[in-house]
Design a protein that fits this description.
With 353 residues, this protein is mainly beta. It has four helices and 25 strands. The strands form two sheets. The protein has a 22-stranded mixed beta sheet that branches. The chain has a three-stranded antiparallel beta sheet with strand order 8-9-10, with no helix packed on it. Helix 1 packs antiparallel against helix 2 and helix 2 crosses helix 3. The N and C termini lie far apart (78 Å).
C-alpha cells in the first residue's frame, strides 16, 4: 500500500469521528510517513511501519463497534435514511444534540444502540463512542461558505431546506446518563432505564411516557411538557410560557416551574417534597400519597390542591391577598407541612383518602 492509498483508506474509516479529530489524525500519519521516507524507507515500507489502520481508527473513535448500516435513498429529496449501530458494552453516557430537528427516544429490541437519522448532501451526523460515552451530533456542511439558520442552510450557491431528526433506541440492559438537546425541535418517546435523564429544548415540546430514571430534568423555553408514567428519584420540570401536565408520576422530590403556563398533576406520588411555582398560570395538583413537605405558589393564578390523607394529618398554611381561600383547619402538630400562596388568585386545598 502506498501513501495515497493509506490516507484515502484512513479518511474513509474516520468518517464517523469528529471532523477536527479526523483531520488532526490524518495530518499526523501523513507527516509520519514522510519522516520515514526521509530516513531512507521506501513509500511502501514507511506505510507498513505505521501499523494497522483499524487500530488507529479504534484509538480515535473508541474501542466499541460503531457500524453504519447502508441506508435507503429517497429519490424525491435525494436523502438517505441511515442506522448507526453501537455496541452497548461499557456505555455509561449517551449525549445527542440537534439544532432544529426532533429527538425521539425509544426502546431497542435487539440489545444494540441504534441511532436512526436522515442525511443528505447538506446534513450528516457524527456518531462516536469513546471512554464509555456515545455522542450523536449533527453536522451541516456544504462546499464554499456555509451558515446554519434553523431549518435553512445558506451556502455558497443558494439556500437549501432540509428535514432532520434523531431517533435514539436504547436497550434496557444498560442504564446510562442520557442527555438530549435540541434548538427548536420536540423531544418525545420513552426511556426504560437511565441513571439520569436530561431533556432540553429551546422552543419545542417535551412529551415522555414510561420513564424510569434515577434523576430526571425536563426543560423548554416556550414549549409544553407532558409526562405520563414516570418513576424517578427526583423530577425537575421547567418551562417559561408553556404548560406542564403530568400523570402517574412517582418521585421522592418534585420541582415544577412555569412563568405563565398552567401546571397540572394527576396521581402524583411523592415520598418527600413538592415545590410548585408559577407567576400567572393556574395550578391543579392531585396527590396519590401523603406529602411530607409542600410549597405551592402563584402570583395571580388559582391553586387547587388535593392532598392524600385526613385533615388532621396536615399543617396547612394558606394565604391569598385578594382571592377566596378554602382549606382544612391547620393542625400545627401534624408532621406533614404544606404552604400555599397566591397574590390575587383563589386557593382550594382539600384532603382525601
Amino acid at each position: 500500500m502506498n501513501k495515497k492509498e493509506f490516507i484515502e483508506e484512513l479518511c474513509k474509516k474516520l468518517r464517523l469521528a469528529p471532523a477536527e479529530e479526523a483531520e488532526k489524525t490524518v495530518n499526523y500519519y501523513s507527516e509520519a510517513i514522510d519522516d520515514r521516507i526521509e530516513d531512507g524507507m521506501t513509500e511502501e515500507e514507511a506505510v507498513a511501519a505505521i501499523g494497522n489502520i483499524d487500530d488507529i481508527v479504534r484509538e480515535v473513535i473508541g474501542d466499541a463497534e460503531v457500524r453504519e448500516n447502508e441506508g435507503t435513498w429517497d429519490s424525491d429529496d435525494k436523502s438517505v435514511r441511515k442506522n448507526y449501530v453501537v455496541d452497548p458494552e461499557g456505555v455509561t453516557a449517551v449525549n445527542a444534540a440537534e439544532t432544529s430537528g426532533d429527538i425521539e427516544l425509544a426502546r431497542s429490541t435487539d440489545g444494540k444502540i441504534h441511532v436512526r437519522v436522515t442525511e443528505n448532501k447538506f446534513v450528516s451526523y457524527s456518531v462516536t463512542k469513546s471512554a464509555g460515552t456515545v455522542t450523536v451530533a449533527k453536522k451541516t456542511q456544504r462546499g464554499g461558505f456555509r451558515l446554519n439558520l434553523g431549518i435553512l442552510t445558506i451556502s455558497g450557491d443558494g439556500i437549501f431546506s432540509h428535514a432532520s431528526g434523531i431517533r435514539l433506541e436504547l436497550p434496557d440492559t444498560i442504564a446510562p446518563n442520557i442527555t438530549v438537546k435540541t434548538g427548536s425541535g420536540d423531544i418525545r418517546g420513552t426511556v426504560t432505564a437511565a441513571q439520569s435523564l436530561a431533556c432540553g429544548s429551546g422552543s419545542g415540546d417535551i412529551s415522555l411516557s414510561s420513564v424510569a430514571a434515577g434523576r430526571t430534568e425536563l426543560s423548554t423555553a416556550s414549549g409544553d411538557v407532558d409526562g405520563v408514567d414516570i418513576t424517578t428519584n427526583d423530577l425537575s420540570v421547567s418551562t417559561v410560557s408553556g404548560d406542564i401536565e403530568l400523570k402517574r408520576v412517582a418521585a421522592i422530590g418534585l420541582k415544577l416551574k412555569s412563568v405563565s403556563g398552567e401546571i397540572s398533576g394527576k396521581e402524583i406520588y411523592s415520598d418527600d417534597k413538592l415545590i410548585v411555582n408559577t407567576v400567572s398560570g393556574d395550578v391543579d395538583i392531585e396527590m396519590a400519597s401523603p406529602l411530607k413537605v409542600g410549597t405551592v405558589e402563584s402570583t395571580s393564578g388559582d391553586i387547587t390542591l388535593l392532598l392524600y390523607g385526613r385533615d388532621e394529618d396536615y399543617s396547612v398554611s394558606v394565604r391569598s391577598i385578594s382571592g377566596e381561600v378554602s382549606a382544612p383547619s391547620n393542625n400545627e402538630e401534624a408532621q406533614n407541612a404544606v404552604r400555599v400562596r397566591t397574590a390575587s388568585g383563589d386557593i382550594d386545598v382539600s384532603c382525601e383518602v
